[in-house]
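Q: My labmate handed me this sequence with no annotations at all. I'd like to see what the chain might look like in three dimensions before we decide whether it's worth expressing. Could you predict it?
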Amino acid sequence: MNEVFGSSMLRVEQPRRGPFAKSRYKVLDGDGVVLALAAPADGEGRAGMRGVVPGKSNLDARAVLLTTPDGDPLLFVDKQRGRDYTEILNPEEETVGSFVTERVGRRYVVYDGAGALIGAVAVDVPRNNFEVSDNDGTKVAHVRKKWAGLATHLLTTADKYSVEIYDPVSEPLRTMCVMTAIVMDMNLHESKEIT
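A: Here is what I predict for the chain of 195 residues:
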């Protein structure tokens, strides 16, 4: 993934749509060039088998497929029901890594595809700042959710995240830093409730 997410400054954005148009994202570099698109998985691969369960709760299972702008598959984000476990898979259905809840809405641990602990995500109280650290506790990335106002928050899916990666960060932790924005949005912000 390093060739796609090689920039140290990235943005992850959701298009402005109604509150039920969830799980759609664009990943852009610092200059605004679209690197990847994500949309609900359509039944392909292991992640797609979960499908997109309708409903407004961020506790529902969801799966999104991340592709290049040309449509080539990059990753599956497979959020299982609840907030406990989200798996990142490559197009060959091999696990790249996973996010496991340690404290709901406050701390998540990050594993690689073999199940080895590679880092953690600390979440601030308003759930707008996500600090990604490696196993040594060194901060390797900062993901920030931009507040767009109450009307935008409640009536649309238009969330915007900035991702700053403090290079060098090796794979798969680098890819997991970028996926933090999508995973935290799916786990903490998709319901559009005021929390």
